[in-house]
Amino acid sequence: MSSRNSITREQARLIALGAQGFTDPLPKGAPDMRALRRVFKRVGVVQIDSVNVLARAHQLPFFSRLGPYRRDLLGEKAFKKRELFEYWGHMASYVPMKHYPLLRWRMEEFYEKYVRPRSTRTDLFRRITSEISERGEQSISTLSDRGERAGAWWGWSEGKMALELLFSAGRLAVSRRGPNFERYYDLPERVIPAELLKTSPPDPDGSRKELLKLASHCLGIATAKDLADYFRLPLTGSRPLIAELVEAEDLRPADVEGWKDPAYLPRRFVLPSEASRDTFVSPFDSLIWFRERTERLFDFFYRIEIYVPASKRIHGYYVLPFLMGDRLAARVDLKADRKVSSLLVKSAYLEPPHKSAQVASRLASALKEMAEWLELERIVVEARGDAALTRGLNREIRSHQSNRRTARVAKELG
User: Fold this and answer.
1) In a designed cystine with 31, which of 35, 204, 272, 337 is the match (CB 3.0 to 4.6 A)?
2) pLDDT (tens digit per residue) in 82-97
3) If we measure between CA atoms, which residue out of 310, 312, 314 comes closest to residue 301?
């Protein structure tokens, strides 16, 4: 076995950014499905969330890595082509279809723990499955047997609870998301390719080991905690599997400057020479999922404040870190106000040791790209945050919007 690798902090950041696809060249021309597949190959799993303050949470990671792309590429088209399935990967997630067998153990585990013991619900499960079998995909709003709302399970109806239980147990599959983001459920054999349903998956430990290998590939450099968190695996059970992967030389031990815990590299990894992308990182982006790792990599303390009372928020409601090269240089609270076609910068905070003059121009360019992608006509910068940064942003944005008006008038005049 080779000796331990010694990695500097800067190298660790570059390895992580490269593994996550932030150092890949931007597509030539408009990003297409091939570009989205490339991102999925990098990240392995994309978290889904209904938050739509700016754009759907699962749409933002592709924008961060590809620039402006057609958001409908990630929707029904990908499901019709059976390229993705939805399941609990890292929370609710979109996962490439080929990885379906690796999550079968989680479905069976859920079935044994939460569905089989509910013998009083057996008739309800059977009726719902029969209705879907006969009528095709159903959402809770189209299901005839919805039942009454219950106190537990977030006030869900009995029908909604049954759909979610059967989905989590692999007895139903999500066929698509509706216009209002509600799930449509169908029989697995009408959603998952037959060859994958027939494939005998590895035993649970074998599946978990493969998921840890995949996490290592997606993270680039990671501790045991990082690896386990990526697919939400129990850390205690993951440690012996990681040891086996090291023994098999699928993982390479490493020491990272300033990290207390040992780190691991995949068998093959790339150290990019630089990172040059300026972009925003969603709170639900796999680059910063595990907040402990975000601090180790970027010296950046981050907590999402959506669920914090307004009076106790420090930076804002929906704050996105701004990636500038290989550092998180600012944090910006953004909102798409579609009624007035504006991208609102509710606040902008600089991260030390960066200077506002360094960041304002590059941050303004990223805001312009974001506004164009979201088809918003203007950018409005509010005064909350670092005064010098918001002043610099306002100057840059006013100049840009003035140039756009001039160009529009010139075009109209011929």
Assistant:
1) 35
2) 899 999 999 999 999 9
3) 314
Residue 319: strand pairing partners: 333
Count how many residues are written for the chain: 414
| CA dist., res. 86 & res. 97, Å (int) | 9
CB 369 within 8 A of CB 362: no
- 93: tokens are 């997630």
Residue 88 in contact with residue 168, Cβ under 8 Å?
yes
**Residue 353, amino acid:** P
- Of 349, 258, 280, the closest CA to residue 54 belongs to 280
Q: What is the pTM of this model?
A: 0.92
Q: How many Å apart are CA 379 and CA 381, to the nearest integer?
A: 7
Confirm if 73 and 58 have CB atoms less than 8 A apart. Answer: no
Q: How far apart are CA 198 and CA 183, in angstroms?
A: 25
Q: At what angle do helices 158-168 and 122-135 cross, to 10 degrees?
A: 80
From the CB of residue 245, how many other CB atoms can be counted at a distance below 10 Å? 22
How many other C-beta atoms can be found within 10 angstroms of the C-beta atom of residue 50?
12
